[in-house]
Amino acid sequence: MASSASTAPRTALTIRLCGPRGFCAGVDRAIQIVVLALKKYGAPVYVRHEIVHNRYVVEGLEAKGAIFVEELDEIPAEHRDQPVVFSAHGVPKSVPADAEARNLFYLDATCPLVSKVHKQAMRHQRMGRHVVLIGHAGHPEVIGTMGQLPEGSVSLVETVEDAAHYQPADPDNLGYVTQTTLSVDDTAGVIRKLHERFPNLTAPAADSICYATTNRQEAVKQAAPGCDLFLIVGAPNSSNSKRLVEVALRAGARQSLLVQRASEIDWNTVGDLKTVGLSAGASAPEVIVNEIIEAFKARYDTTVELADTVEENEHFLVNRELREVELTHADMAWVNG
After folding, report:
1. Fewer beta carbons under 10 A from the terminal one: N or C of the chain?
2. Which are the contacts of 301, defined by CB distance < 8 A and separation ≥ 6?
3. Is 141 in the active site?
4. Rounded to the nearest 5°, which phi and psi values hold at 22?
């Protein structure tokens, strides 16, 4: 029986391929840390929580010898000399303290921009301010940021409505920080409401939402108008990827979907397509973007147009213990293509 790809009409289709897209410098660094640790120390290398929110990446690292755990007590005694890597989202201070108490060797893969938010929160506290954290409850980054300070030092605000009802003990001594992967527009609304209610609210020394989140949202905004469908490559638990779906819809795409692989596209329900937008969250590998383009090329007479906004050239160094280990193109080809 002939496949649907071979029988579908070869209608003309334009893919607007956003740039920047996919891996940011923090995600790239975190994956490199696990790959280099496996090269230097051998398997197994333990990773606390998903190193980044992407199933393809997690399964790829598992195939290389990484073992993912949620808590450090899951590491067996016979493997205590093997490294454990903390994820890019950051961890509460209690986690490295626990690792040290267990005599574990750990490598911290926290994104430097998340670490910057931790420092901003700690600075607010040092200056006598109660910290307001704008973010999503339960997200690992939020748990990690709140865990930098004593219990009760941080209040979480998620929405404009939360900001409208928030009742601090001392309204004149507040400082805010934000999760790095939020919607730029949504967060601006929350901050406006907080400033409206608390004129003495102190901003962080630098913007907390990371450059990669901002850049990917801006590229999607530019490309979305007139798109019949906008696909975002990313995981359902990836905050920055889900925000890109929302941005695409607000900016004018007729429909927008989050997909992890090409196999998740339901070709029978996407409707008539002439223009498709395509981007990827900061934890989504380029190989899956290529896979999706090939799936469209199998069904349509496809033209790919680059929809670039800015060029990213950020690069974060891996941990000092790993810098002498050579990282080759072949080491990362499984994600970068």
Report:
1. N
2. 10, 11, 12, 13
3. yes
4. 70, -155
pTM: 0.92
In which residue are the tokens 């990371």 written?
210
Q: How far is CA 157 from the centre of its chain?
A: 20
- Is residue 256 within a helix (H) or strand (E), and if so which, with residue range? strand 256-259
Which of these is catalytic: 59, 71, 141, 246?
Answer: 141
Among candidate residues 243, 244, 181, the one with its CA nearest the CA of residue 208: 181
Per residue of the chain (337 residues), what is the pLDDT tens digit? Answer: 444 455 545 899 999 999 999 999 999 999 999 999 999 999 999 999 999 999 999 999 999 999 999 999 999 999 999 999 999 999 999 999 999 999 999 999 999 999 999 999 999 999 999 999 999 999 999 999 999 999 999 999 999 999 999 999 999 999 999 999 888 888 999 999 999 999 999 999 878 889 999 999 999 999 999 999 999 999 999 989 999 999 999 999 999 999 999 999 999 999 899 999 999 999 999 999 999 999 999 999 999 999 999 999 999 999 999 999 999 999 999 999 9
3-state secondary structure (DSSP) of residue 322: helix
